[in-house]
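Hi C.,

You asked whether I'd gotten around to modeling the 64-residue construct. I have! Everything is below, sequence then structure, no commentary in between.
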Amino acid sequence: MQRTARLLAKIKDGAAKLSSDEFAVAVWPAAVGKRLANRTGPLKLYGAKLVVDVEDAVWQHQLT
């Protein structure tokens, strides 16, 4: 997750017109990779915490 956080911080500098939630959706595939992006997605940012939507309980367990 540290790599993802660095990527998001770097990209966000050029994305000032997007809300935090829109930004998370826009960069999700680049941040986590295609395979994971196909099965998950960002829902909402609460401060520094991102709530992620998952396909099922198996994916939830794996990501936790």
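If it helps when you're writing up: The first strand starts at residue 40 and ends at 46.

Thanks,
B.
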